[in-house]
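Sequence in, structure out. First:
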Amino acid sequence: MVGSINNTSPANVGIHALEFYHPAKFVDQTELEQFDGVSAGKYTIGLGQTQMAVCDDREDINSISLTVVQNLVEKHGLSYKDIGYLEVGTESIIDKSKSVKTVLMSLFEESGNHDVEGIDTKNACYGGTASVFNAVNWVESSSWDGRLALVVAADIASYAEGPARPTGGAGAIAILIGPNAPLVFDQGVRATHMNHIWDFYKPELASEYPIVDGHFSNICYIRSVDACYSLFTKKYSKRYRPNSEQLIKSGDLDYSVFHASTCKMVQKAFGRMAYNDMLQDPENEIYASVKVYAKFAYSEESYYDKGLERAMMQFTKDEYQKKVVPSLYAATNVGNMYTASVWASLSSLISSATDEEILNKRVGLFSYGSGSAATFFSLKVIASTEKFRETLQIRTCLANRTKVTPEHFTELMKLREETALLKDYSPISDISTLAKGTYYLTRIDEKFRRTYART
């Protein structure tokens, strides 16, 4: 059992455990550059990506979610009776009615626990964060019955052949939430921005592939950083610095974690936070080298000026290495994981930082989902994270994957295209590379019902 759970008023609600699952295969982005015939560094430097997770026809949203939940329960000695709330955030929809959460309830059968609230939540890459907020709200509400909440953020990010394909990936995160946690969410400071845009969407229900305007989507991401971060600084300062006239700045956060569509996008976003700080205090001498860009303010031109973008990335270069890069190991080696992305980045940070580096530190998090929905929020590490490091082992697990050639990667993508909505189908991909404890698809019957086995 993780933590001390009882029916008293919950305090220090936050994260007790994290579990990360990624596919067993990957393609090297340098090799993919050569295969695609693009300039050297286009993916590795231009996007900040090193490797990308690859799925074959054995894996779907149900299988990766089953894997990450069962692994978390086993590693932390939980009983399924301990869980009273389960919600799944995903945009990898394989059924327009039946939720992934109901599939996960098969894991609860032996325990006899069917009293579990929550279903699936969908909005592009934001669904996992919305599910976390719902789980936190449940624990803090009058509906809480003393048990733990579990959130699954999981997706398979696939793109059609073309410039967006290298920004794919796949992953799943399980997040165990309850009171008396070592990672505690700050209350009353969440800052959200939502609006109606067409930067990325999936209207073709027979395809995994989205319709995406990559450049416009990047602009929408940065606009949401502006809106959420500027509001967060006001809410945070009012709650935690009521007697100070100075708003919190990005430098006051010990670490910053972002939704990582690409790692280069994260670097741009961190620079934009500093730009927001400068606009609040443009005469401060620390901004002398970039003060000229204050003239743009929040104008439309500020989102398209490459000089501003490069200047702020250069201005924050050292802080970026210290406060952001520790969170990007999974992102650069797995790729975009949609709903799981920001939580995989948090997992990378927590699994790599020592207690000395992370204890009593505050982490700012930015989650973005196209269409769009975004929130900036924060948490504080108030107890040892040794258990997270012991169980996650992200670097070790990633090192044990199997590399596939770009040619084989292309073949696997074609296989997924051709079999995406088949019935009466038995997957053909080899299961020998799957890690121990991985669920995989064994059959889709004539009524589209899916069955799974575990290695």
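Second:
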Amino acid sequence: MDLAVLWFGIVAFFFVGYFVLDGFDFGVGMALPFLGRDDTDRRVMINTIGPVWDLNETWVIVGGAALFAAFPEWYATLFSGFYLALLLILLALIARGVSFEYRHQRPDARWKRWFDGMIVVGSALPAFLWGVAFANIVQGVALNAHHDYTGTLFDLLNGYALLGGLTTLLLFFTHGVVFVSLKTDGDLRLRARKLATRSGAAAIVVAAVFLGWTALNHFSPVFLALAILAAVALIASWIANLRGVEGWSFGFMAATIALAVVSLFAALFPNVMPSSPNPENTLTIANASSSDTTLTIMTWVAAIFLPLILVYQGWTYWIFRKRVTRDHIPQETVDDAGEPQQPVTA
């Protein structure tokens, strides 16, 4: 197999892993104001992703590093042309990470509301902008002969791209709400299932329109087959949620996102960044990739370390597989000066 094509597939694999894993993190964060009736509910929700959110986020770092090493021309064009959008994603991820670490440092309600708001924005903004970015990559952007992006930020906010952003927003939101129902118990679990039913129905409609629009402009048999499988998995997830089978619902939702991302890469192949006004300026797998020597070294490194990463991540999820309930949340206490003391178990 051509090493450049192999690494196109590996880059796709890293982004599939990122969107599936960090996708439900985003969904949990966005669902805080919809499911968190009190601070204990919100702490339960945050604790469902507390042990894994930072591990999930490393997938985009590895994916970006693989993109940089395997396809430097693609990396350069993408990160220079989409600089502002990617900067907003980075700032949102930083704000979200800081909020996870600092919201519990003081018992003050205003302090917690401030960081909860940062978690919501820091989850919703990347969930939307990643969809906008990938939709633009598939659709094609204005590139000159040097493969530099010549458009503006507003050119990226076209109808197709905004629909792509809304699709990822709804898919990640539903993915996160299903995860809450899978990882919690009691009233919070039931409310999460009801919310997933409503958001899942909206996601089915929006995703169908987006995949249909993509098929009209970038049709290929492979893309069509993957898009149909993604649609079937999404409907299956919605039905499983209705029946209260959270594990199956979450699994089908993960399959939906994975198949949707793979279908977009299939629609893109063999290009990596099409040029919409002048196809001659399109970046392809062939003209954007590194040398065979570089790709060979990277392939050996990936063959050694990628299985170890997968085993470690799987082990982490196994260790933290149990449900989180309100009884697991320690009660905060304060001293006479109003300073937080060591929490005691409820």
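Remark: Residues 3-186+270-296 form one domain.
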